Amino acid sequence: MPLVDPSHPLAELLERDPRYTLDAYLFVLEALSFAQDALGLGSGEPAGPKKAGRRRKTEQHVTGQELCEAARRYAQQQYGYLAPTVLGAWGVRATADFGEIVFNMIEIGQMRKTRQDCREDFHDVYRFEDAFARDLTFAVPEAS
After folding, report:
1. Three-class SS of residue 46?
2. Model's pTM, two decimal places?
């Protein structure tokens, strides 16, 4: 398991809420990057006020449903048919767990949300029992 600096806000969060491992939190951050970069998900929103002579940077806001779908696809890419087993070992057994992780990270300032975002956005987006078998392909090498 990766170690976290005791002074980092995640260290206190892991102590306070032991439902999820550090790997689960890191996975959600990676899934968010995957959603934005690889899948092009998210609507552009201004990141803050315009600075003198500088353009405002836009951030890609990803909805709860989009993040759940990105997490599904990223987990399949990384872990194949073992994705639900790996996620389960980290405490993630349903899409609502992604929401709990996101809102825990919002609480410690590691992620942000819009006024419209809520935990319920992550509830029942898909069933783990079914979702990780969807779109999974097996490649059999050709005989030479």
Report:
1. strand
2. 0.80
